[in-house]
Design brief:
- The structure holds two protein chains of two kinds.
- By secondary structure, chain A is mainly alpha-helical.
- Chain A has 18 helices and no strands.
- In chain A, α4 packs antiparallel against α6 (120-135).
- Chain A starts with a helix and ends in a 38-residue tail after the last helix.
- Mean pLDDT of chain A is 94; it is low at 1-12.
- Helix content of chain B is 40%, strand content 15%.
- Chain B is α+β, with helices and mostly antiparallel strands.
- Chain B is elongated.
- In chain B, strands 3-2-1-5-8 form a five-stranded mixed β-sheet. Chain B has a five-stranded mixed β-sheet with strand order 4-10-9-6-7, covered by helices on one side.
């Protein structure tokens, strides 16, 4: 580690201490840490909101809140979880790991990187501020339209909608800057000899994500800006009386919204093969096939958006097109599942916490994929659409797929980041509580949807009572289990058994050649990847 | 506490109990679609059942292989890791490609072909349609119109506030009951046209297998052919504001003779209402009918007390608009006046143009009521005939 200590001599003395260090840092590890910390914090904020919702839905009748407030909680929960918890977590991973994995000294654009992070707290503040303003009699609370902001409901809404629009603008700028940075880093700063096809899959997952973000976010930004001008300047983009069309908003929103699902999941799909390979002590199966699957899913993800509103009265050819194109996503996705299981096949498996989370992810995300396949069917979708069946489906995709994927990564890399081992006992406890309570929460929602319960209702008919009660009990158990996670991470940051440089027995890759934790500046001299 | 609590607790215990003693209380749980009563509903259910079997088989096979691997290829039982990282040789390539061939077959043949026919069938709203029903969604009620007979009325939730707030025991059809259900004849193909006056709503009756958005400014369509008489209940499925959870759809399907009789009776009611608009109403009549209309149509937003829920839903008590002048001296409409607001609504807000949904008598009565209630003491009144002249 000669290069690393050389770096320490030169730079470490210069950066400011305390709060100013974090405000001004351009170090990819510091920024990664800030992203991850922010994400964990917002995960609990978004979680607290939905526990309020689940408490209200525990029994039929309105017990705790008015429908107006209920509608605010569901929409802000989704926006917080997607934009302020899941996306920053993935960006935190990218910041920490991409330079280490490709042998780069830092991200390509370090100042942009700092700015990208520091736009997030104001955006989160803007999103949630209307809740507090309402306490002082200003406005009628946060955005109450659901995260989809469908016009004309959002044209009618209060100041919460304006706050949400500006928040989305800022979050979008932050994500685009992050994406530019990641693309610039990956394309320019790989170690000599690391061709694109040799690049670790996590970096590939992120590369496709970054491209998707740059393609789709401007469309969302345009859509919400049109909404803003409809609200305040009497444009009529979404108003039929003025020649506009409410469904136009849905097209614009879901042109972003559907790729967004893959934006959230691709970094996790990129991470999985590394974890599986480590704990099976066997090389990744189908590296190239997975790269092409990522690209195929990215491309297909851009052309299937209208399956989110198949009941809106699209013409028959459009219905058929969106149905079959959506079904075709199952093929590249099946390649990924095949490669994951083939990586495990004839390995020598051990089941540490990251491996448990990875396996839990594969099975539960499998349920999301399979139910997604039937959701594509137009006639069946007429039943599933906007029912709890869909709610269950996308929580299998985004909690079991997204959040459990992030937890896989945290347990996998935490020893590398901190130099300490987390508590394996607490990690396993966290895993089992999470998986069991997750299924208690969301499995009943499939049946609620089939029985005919619409989503986003604060009160429901009596035949839905039993499953809702089970779901609420599950949700509280799920929420409380995550405190174990926070505690385990906190303990690991503070201290614990020393982690070795390789951390796990079966690891492969540049990042494991550095010390644990890596020096503040790493890979100042690029490593060389041998041919072959 | 409310009398509903013990029952809810009993239900919860039953629910949790079921998780451990499966099979005992299955009757309380619905695991699949409610019984379909239309051809589309039946098709959808059988397709759904078929798909569920397919994906269950896929799930069991794929994760069966994975679980076998997890058991057989453990380090703790001395497994030695292989080094392969892709298919080698023709045989391995064959076994790699087989699952994808199977998936292609499932996607585009096994599921794709029935799905194709279902779409074509579902969207064929016009062939041999026997009648038309027009459904208009509005915050937060449905209006039903039968263009053939001119019958038109509004359907709103009848579950009392006390049940929602837990002050009374909840009834059997809690939140799924309305004052005027849609009445449709069985065995007839009903083409349903949908639109909305404000935001997007979605008309959904699970037993029909039909769900279609009602979009302001546009007509969308779907169809049903109900095969059995009965009462079918559904709900709005698109978030449409605060009372989204409180605008149920109730359809009463009856034999054709009964339907014809019902249409006749509705027409007579309509004629009587129109006739009542032509006579002069007394102040007491207007106030009584006004209160009835207000509680049904206006109270959801402006509240029974007239205090509203500001800032989204302004108070009528002490309102400048309500306490402003009624009409101009020559009997014309004053822009942005009380009468203008009630008849023509306010763009960009939940306040609709009620002249399209309420009768002359309803409008006159509710305006008169609002001007002389909640502490407002204008003392004036407006006659249905005057409203008619303003239309």
């Amino acid at each position: 580690m000669n290069t690393a200590s050389h770096a320490l001599d030169h730079h470490d003395g210069h950066h400011p201490a305390g709060l100013l260090r974090w405000l001004t840092t351009t170090n990819h590890k510091d920024i990664g840490t800030m992203y991850l910390t922010f994400s964990l914090l917002m995960f609990f904020v978004g979680g607290a909101m939905i526990l309020g919702v689940r408490a209200e839905l525990f029994q039929p009748g309105l017990q705790l809140m008015k429908p107006e407030f209920f509608n605010q909680l569901i929409g802000v929960h989704a926006l917080v979880m997607i934009f302020a918890a899941l996306m920053p977590a993935a960006t935190g991973f990218a910041n920490w790991m991409i330079p280490l994995m490709i042998g780069a000294p830092d991200m390509a654009l370090p100042r942009l990187n700092n700015w990208g992070f520091w736009l997030l707290p104001p955006a989160a503040l803007l999103l949630t501020m209307p809740f507090f303003l309402a306490l002082f009699g200003i406005g009628d609370g946060a955005v109450a339209t659901g995260w989809t902001l469908y016009a004309p409901l959002s044209v009618q809404g209060g100041i919460g909608v304006d706050f949400a629009i500006f928040s989305i603008h800022i979050l979008g700028i932050s994500s685009i800057m992050g994406s530019i940075n990641i693309i610039a880093t990956i394309l320019n700063m790989r170690a000599p000899g690391m061709t694109l096809m040799k690049m670790p899959l996590f970096c590939w997952g992120w590369l496709v994500t970054a491209v998707l973000l740059i393609i789709t976010l401007p469309v969302l930004a345009g859509g919400v800006t049109m909404l803003l001008t409809d609200r305040h300047f009497d444009t009529h983009f979404f108003n039929a009386a003025g020649g506009g069309d409410p469904i136009l908003f849905q097209h614009l929103f879901w042109f972003f919204g559907h790729p967004e699902v893959y934006i959230l999941l691709l970094p996790v799909w990129g991470l999985m093969p590394h974890v599986l390979s480590t704990f099976t002590r066997k090389p990744i199966y189908g590296h190239t096939a997975q790269v092409w699957s990522f690209i195929a899913i990215g491309v297909l993800g851009l052309i299937v958006w209208a399956h989110h509103f198949l009941t809106s009265g699209l013409p028959v050819p459009a219905l058929l097109y969106f149905m079959y194109s959506t079904m075709s996503i199952s093929l590249p996705l099946a390649v990924l599942f095949f490669c994951w299981i083939a990586t495990m096949w004839r390995g020598a498996m051990s089941f540490e916490t990251p491996m448990l989370f990875a396996l839990g992810f594969i099975v539960l995300f499998g349920i999301a994929g399979l139910t997604g396949l039937v959701l594509a069917d137009v006639a069946a979708d007429a039943q599933y659409h906007h029912s709890y069946f869909v709610v269950a489906h996308f929580h299998y995709a985004l909690f079991a797929g997204g959040i459990m994927g992030v937890m896989t990564g945290v347990y996998y890399w935490l020893p590398k980041w901190t130099g300490h081992m987390y508590s394996e006992k607490l990690g396993k406890l966290h895993f089992w509580l999470t998986v069991i309570s997750f299924n208690f929460t969301f499995m009943p929602q499939f049946f609620l949807g089939l029985a005919g319960m619409p989503r986003r209702i604060p009160d429901y008919a009596l035949q839905f009572a039993e499953f809702n009660a089970i779901s609420t009990v599950g949700a509280f158990a799920l929420g409380l289990s995550q405190l174990i996670f926070a505690y385990n991470v906190w303990r690991c940051v503070k201290g614990g058994d020393k982690a070795t440089d390789r951390v796990w027995e079966g690891t492969e890759g540049l990042e494991w050649e550095l010390s644990s934790p890596p020096p503040h500046h790493s890979w100042e001299t690029q490593p060389v990847i041998k041919a072959g | 506490m409310s009398p509903t609590v013990p029952r809810s607790q009993a239900r919860l215990l039953a629910a949790l109990g079921l998780l451990f003693v499966s099979g005992s209380a299955l009757a309380d749980f619905t695991w699949n679609f409610p019984k379909p009563v239309t051809p589309i509903g039946r098709d959808t259910l059988s397709m759904h059942n078929q798909f569920m079997i397919i994906i269950t088989v896929l799930f069991v096979v794929v994760f069966g292989i994975m679980v076998y691997s997890m058991i057989a290829h453990r380090k703790s039982v001395g497994a030695q890791p292989a080094r392969f990282s892709g298919p080698r040789g023709a045989l391995q390539w064959f076994w790699v490609l087989v699952p994808f061939a199977i998936l292609l077959f499932i996607d585009f043949v096994l599921m794709g072909i029935p799905a194709f026919h279902a779409v074509i069938d579902m969207e064929d709203t016009r062939t041999k349609a026997d009648m038309v029903l027009k459904v208009t969604g509005m915050q937060w009620k449905w209006q039903y119109e039968y263009p053939d007979s001119g019958v038109k009325y509004i359907s709103t939730l009848t579950t009392p506030r006390e049940q929602i707030e837990g002050k009374e025991a909840k009834g059997e059809h809690y939140l799924l009951e309305v004052d005027n259900p849609v009445v449709l004849p069985i065995g007839k193909k009903v083409r349903i046209l949908l639109t909305s006056t404000d935001v997007i709503h979605t008309w959904w009756v699970p037993q029909f297998g039909v769900k279609r958005d009602a979009i302001p400014g546009f007509l969308r369509e779907t169809w049903v052919r109900i095969e059995e008489p009965g009462i079918y209940r559904g709900q709005c499925a698109e978030l449409c504001g605060k009372d989204h959870g409180f605008m149920p759809v109730v359809v009463k399907a009856v034999p054709e003779a009964e339907y014809v009789a019902w249409v006749g009776q509705k027409k007579a009611e309509l004629a009587a209402a129109a006739a009542s608009g032509d006579r002069t109403w007394s102040r007491d009549e207007l106030m009584a009918h006004g209160k009835e209309t207000y509680d049904k149509i206006c109270a959801a937003c402006h509240q029974p007390t007239g205090q509203g829920l500001p800032p989204a839903f302004p108070a009528l008590a002490g309102s400048k608009i309500v306490n402003g002048p009624l009409l101009s001296p020559d009997g014309k409409l004053i822009p942005d006046s009380h009468v203008d607001r009630v008849m023509n609504g306010k763009a960009g807000t939940a306040m609709q143009a009620f002249k399209t949904t309420l009768s002359d008598a309803d409008l006159a009565a509710v305006i008169t009521y609002e001007r002389n209630s909640f502490g407002n003491t204008k003392g004036d009144m407006i006659q249905p005939a005057q409203i008619k002249a303003l239309r």
